[in-house]
Amino acid sequence: MKERLREEEKPVERSTEDEMSLKGTLFSTLFFVGGSIVLWTGVLLVLFIMRF
Question: What's the structural domain count of the chain?
Answer without folding.
Answer: 1
